[in-house]
Amino acid sequence: MNASNEPVILKLGGSAITDKGAYEGVVKEADLLRIAQEVSGFRGKMIVVHGAGSFGHTYAKKYGLDRTFDPEGAIVTHESVKKLASKVVGALNSFGVRAIAVHPMDCAVCRNGRIETMYLDSIKLMLEKGLVPVLHGDVAMDIELGTCILSGDQIVPYLAKELGISRLGLGSAEDGVLDMEGKPVPEITPETFEEFRHCIGGSGSTDVTGGMLGKVLELLELSKNSSITSYIFNAGKADNIYRFLNGESIGTRISPDKRV
Ligand SMILES: Nc1ncnc2c1ncn2[C@@H]1O[C@H](COP(=O)(O)OP(=O)(O)OP(=O)(O)O)[C@@H](O)[C@H]1O
Ligand SMILES: C=C(C)CCOP(=O)(O)O
């Protein structure tokens, strides 16, 4: 059990909750319900962040939102990821998790694709009152670019740092960061990253936020700045989310360098 009262941050990867190979948004209904049930077994405070999967990456790619400002594309993509958020929140509530959607487009401002400010007071109050904020990968306003694609993989470490949360995990569709033989690497630190760099690539599906490499880089940066250890694990396997939320170390650990 996670004995502390500190909240946990869980990311549900787009490949775990949607069919990321689809040309438009398709939810993996059975997986989403199983995941919602596992989340409902956790008694502590938590923030859920989910990826955009086929609800976001397909449209972001179609309108070139990772390269250009396109107002129509921004609206279509934002509306689509909001639909996914509503399905995630609906599934969580159907299992008694008091989940509320918080859309990053409404509360974050970016500069050159990185979060510059984010309004967090409502999230803090939700946590205090036992509600579960659900954020997600989104289109966000950007001071330099007009809009940018804001990945859940960037939101997770940002929230951890700003809210002082030290337990976080990204649940995707692989057993962790896989080596050349397809086996999960138990631990990566800033010091050992170069040993594994050649095995880590982008997503196998349509994706504008860097796939596995994007995740590892975000979490390594967090480990350097804050000494936080985080986890990348398979949310597609039954019980893994429950195990992670309750304090087990599963998948690949992204840890700070060891002190000598
Ligand atoms: N070494 C590696 N280990 C594991 N997965 C890898 C590796 N290199 C590349 N990948 C790819 O990265 C994918 C995970 O990244 P992806 O961004 O698709 O995940 P996600 O977080 O579930 O999706 P989303 O960004 O929509 O939330 C894997 O499914 C795999 O195709
Ligand atoms: C493609 C969009 C709109 C957001 C991407 O977020 P992610 O799936 O968490 O990387």
TrEMBL record:
The entry's keywords: ATP-binding, Isoprene biosynthesis, Kinase, Nucleotide-binding, Transferase
An example Gene Ontology biological process: terpenoid biosynthetic process
Origin: domain of life: Archaea
Kinase in keyword set: yes
Residue stretches making up the Aspartate/glutamate/uridylate kinase domain: 8-234
Residues reported to bind ATP: 11-15, 53, 211, 215
InterPro entries per the UniProt record, alphabetical: AceGlu_kinase-like_sf (IPR036393), Asp/Glu/Uridylate_kinase (IPR001048), Fosfomycin_R_FomA-type (IPR024192)
Binding site for substrate: 52, 57, 152
One Pfam family per UniProt: AA_kinase
UniProt-listed Enzyme Commission number(s): 2.7.4.26
Catalytic reactions of this protein: isopentenyl phosphate + ATP = isopentenyl diphosphate + ADP
GO molecular function, one term: ATP binding
CDD domains listed in its UniProt record: AAK_FomA-like
Site feature Transition state stabilizer, where: 20
This protein's record includes keyword Transmembrane helix: no
One term under GO cellular component: cytosol
Subunit annotation: Homodimer.
Annotated function: Catalyzes the formation of isopentenyl diphosphate (IPP), the building block of all isoprenoids.
Similarity comment text for this entry: Belongs to the isopentenyl phosphate kinase family.
Protein name: Isopentenyl phosphate kinase
Lineage: Archaea, Methanobacteriati, Methanobacteriota, Stenosarchaea group, Methanomicrobia
